[in-house]
Structures are given as C-alpha cells and as structure tokens.
Amino acid sequence: MFDVPGPRFRRRVFWVSVVSVFVLAGLLALGLRQFAANGQLDPVRWRPYLTWPVWRYLLSGLWSTAAAACATGVLAMAGGLLLALRPNRFTRAYAEVMRTVPVLLLVYVMLFVLPSFGVNLPLFWKLVVPLALSHAASYAVIFRTGVGSVDPGQREAGLSLGMPDGVVTRFVVLPQAVRHMTPLLVTQAVSLLKDTSLGYVVSYTELLFNGRVLANYNGLLIQTFIVVAFVYLVVNLALSRLAHRLEAARARTAR
Fold first, then answer.
1. Which of 50, 68, 161, 171 has a C-alpha 20 to 30 A away from that of 219?
2. 123-164 pLDDT, tens digit each
3. Crossing angle, helix 174-195 and helix 123-148, to 10 degrees?
C-alpha cells in the first residue's frame, strides 16, 4: 500500500525520534526533580510497596481485572464473530454506532438506567456487559477483515466439493482467518484490559479500584498510582510483545 521509505525520509524519522527521546527524557527529569523537591521520592514513602500484604492486595485486584477481561473477551469475540458472519444493515449499523459510543456511557446506562426497569445485575456483570457490547463491534471489524484476507478460491473450492456454505466458513475459511487475525486479537485484548479500569465506577474491586482504596488508606496517592501504572504497563507490554511474536511467526509461515 505504501512505497518503501527512501534515505531522506529515514533520516528525517531518525532525527525526529532522537528529538522526541530527548524531550521525553527532559520531561521525565523535570518530573523527578519536582517529586524530589516535594519529598515524594523519600524512601519511607516507597517502603510500603516492598511488603507482601500491599502487593497481595494489589494482585487480588489484578486477578479481578484478569477475570473481567477474560469474560469480556469471550463474550465480545463471540458477539463480534456473529456480527461479522451475519452482514446486514443492523450488524453494520451496530458496529459503527458502538465503536463511537464511549464505554463509560454504556457503564452508566448499566448502572443507573437499567435498574429503574428492574434489571439489576451483579457488579461483575455491570462491568463486563457494557465492555462486551462495545468491544464486540471492534472484534466484528477484526473478524470481517480476517475473513476478507482469505483467498476467495478457498471458499470456492469448498463449495465446488459440495460443502454447505456454513461448513465452508467454519472449517475452511475461519481456521485460515484466525491465523491472520491472532496478532490483532491480542492487540485488542490490550485495549480491553485497560477498559476494565472503569470498574471503579460500579465499585468492582479491580486493580485501579484497589489502588484508590489503598491510596485513601495510606495517604500515598502518587506512589500508589505509579505502582498501579507500572503493573498495567508490565501486563500490557507483555501482551504487546506476544502480539509482535505472533505477527513475526505468521510472517515466517507465510514465506
């Protein structure tokens, strides 16, 4: 789709990257200096995060985050697959609308609107259902792209053998499409995992909620949220690294 970058463009990208690194390093140094001036880097303020009870509490929140992310992922992928394999006006409109509606708005609908109609789900599902409804639209686009990337001759070959269209889709097209989609599915999981932080709105005890409670308890607001951000960073970087490895493996297989 794009031409290979030439030497001039590569040099430009290199110098822009160098300048960006220096700017970010300067901002980081300025932030650390400001923290030090206000005593936020004193060892006594970080000592609680070297103890197991604090980490056990945060890891329990991470476990709840993982549980919500897994449940959301299963429901969203199932819904996205259904939307992708049933292309019509409704499914296309649903995918377009739900990709533009803020997830927080859906959470508020689940929290404040539905209970007035007698639908009052447990806290876990008040978080999972809105996330699944939103991410199903994104997964539908991924599945549709993956199915479209399969050579049409594969479907035609299956149909020529007398296989029903549904059987061809399930056993011929989808297995090949999944190999193409796997890196995108993992990347989408990163976005999904971050959205579980909205659990604090419904008082679901995920990682960010536990971090807020811990900060209110020990008064170490900055330190707590830096540690929570570090946990999110490690998990999301691991998922991103997995996506890159899967993409590299798929590229080697395609050769």
1. 68
2. 899 999 999 999 998 898 888 887 777 777 777 777 777 777
3. 140
Give the span between the Cα atoms of 152 and 176, in whole angstroms.
12
Task: Give the residue from 169, 188, 165 showing the smallest Cα distance to 177.
Answer: 169
CA distance 7 to 43: 48
CA end-to-end span of the chain: 19
pTM equals: 0.80
Q: How far is CA 206 from the centre of its chain?
A: 15
Distance (Å, whole) CA 25 – CA 167 = 55
d(CA 96, CA 88): 12
| pLDDT (tens digit per residue) in 71-118 | 999 999 999 888 888 878 888 888 888 888 889 899 999 888 888 888
Compute CA distances 148 → 69, 181, 209, whole Å: 27, 11, 40
Q: Is the dihedral of CA 215, 218, 219, 222 positive or negative?
A: negative
Name the residue with tokens 């960073």.
233
Q: Which two tokens stand for residue 121?
A: 């789900």
Contact 195, 131 (CB under 8 A): yes
Length of the chain (residues):
255
Sign of dihedral through CA atoms 50, 54, 60, 63?
A: negative
